[in-house]
Amino acid sequence: LSHVLWAFSKAGESNPKLHVRIADHIYLFCKLELFEPSDLSAILLAFGKVEGSHRTRLFQKIADHMVEIGGFDSFEPHEISDVLEAYATADVIHPRLFARLHAHVNAHVESTSLSEDARRNLVWAYEKAEKAEQA
């Protein structure tokens, strides 16, 4: 599923019916613990630019799952950046997820291990989350 979504996203194509069906399928039937971090980040990035309530509830479910698992050692630094970028792009701010990812990045990720785009996306996502919390 993540590869299909990624391909549509990379091609700049949108198929709203397909996105709704995939979001509903993941939300209702998939065990998120079976997804690799790269799959989760690809799904979130693909849905980041798609409108609809299906996106919001999917993002909430994935955020709750990520907070529940707690450890992010299996995530590559760019995947963490992608996750935060997706949430910020979608205007879905999950304070506990952002706080946990922020703590992980500060403790375990060297800034030199991130591309300039990834660093920029992290800063942008955190700024957006901070503004949302203050509003």
Write the layout of secondary structure elements.
Layout: H1 2-11, H2 16-29, H3 37-48, H4 53-69, H5 77-89, H6 95-108, H7 116-134
Helix pairs in contact: 1-3, 2-4, 3-5, 5-7
Question: What are the segments in which pLDDT stays under 50 over at least 5 consecutive residues?
Answer: none
Tell me how many strands there are: 0
Q: Give me the Rg, rounded.
A: 14 Å
- Round the mean pLDDT to the nearest integer and report it: 88
- What is the overall shape? globular
Q: Report the order of strands and helices.
A: HHHHHHH
Structural class: mainly alpha
Number of helices: 7
Distance between the termini: 35 Å
Tell me the β content: under 5%
Summarize the biggest pleated sheet.
none
